[in-house]
Amino acid sequence: MTAPGFDPGATLVGPKLTVRKLVSADLDGLHAAASDPEIWAGHPATTRWQREVFEPYFRMLIDLGGAVAVEDRSEGRIVGASRFYVAPDQRDAISIGFTFLDRTHWGGVANFEMKSLMLTHAFAHFGEVWFHIAPSNIRSQKATAKLGAVHAYDARLDLAGTPTDWQCFRLAKADWEAVLAGRAA
């Protein structure tokens, strides 16, 4: 990562969730969280719930680095994953993406806690965070907008070994702080 002192694998602890470095031993636990076809219904990889499709994706996350597991401490299990990465067109910023949560953690509370942990960590080192979302993934676009991110442009970028079309959302530190202040009021 580009900022001195930034550790994409740092353990981040919130009220209910822990975000920590994804490791090879997490395959079974993460696949259990990902094995619901509804998670991937609005995603370009609609069959990623299948083990034979999920395993290469998991290996890619491990190989690329920056991937994190999301654990629900009260349930004692992995409930999703995300990734910190540097996009090829935003080398002085950090990006967050490749995120999913199992459906028991949909509805805003868990996603907001996970992203709050990751964003607080990122904004300690960077002035802005980028999100790259597939044009067909409306659910993620809406969730990202709720964080205060704005659609800045569309681009064809290689974020994981294959050039792909992305909608690029930018979140400035001040905009994130305004979201937090609004929630605290």
Jot down its keywords.
30% strand, 185 residues, 5 helices, globular
Secondary structure topology:
Blueprint: E1 12-13, E2 17-21, H1 27-34, H2 51-64, E3 67-72, E4 77-85, E5 94-101, H3 109-123, E6 128-133, H4 138-146, E7 150-158, E8 163-172, H5 173-184
Parallel strand pairs: 5-6
Antiparallel strand pairs: 1-2, 2-3, 3-4, 4-5, 6-8, 7-8
Helix pairs in contact: 1-2
Morphology: globular
CATH C-level class is: Alpha Beta
Helix fraction? 25-40%
Instruction: Report the CATH architecture.
Output: 3-Layer(aba) Sandwich
Radius of gyration: 15 Å
Mean pLDDT: 94
| The CATH homologous superfamily | Gcn5-related N-acetyltransferase (GNAT)
* Total tally of structural domains: 1
How would a crystallographer describe the biggest sheet?
Answer: 8 strands, mixed
- DSSP, total strands: 8
Q: What is the distance, rounded to the nearest whole angstrom, between the alpha carbons of the first and last residues?
A: 34 Å
In the CATH scheme, what's the topology name? Aminopeptidase
Succession of helices and strands: EEHHEEEHEHEEH
Stretches where pLDDT is under 50 for at least 5 consecutive residues are: none
Strand order of the largest sheet: 1-2-3-4-5-6-8-7
Structural class: alpha+beta
Number of helix segments? 5
Proportion in β-strands:
25-35%
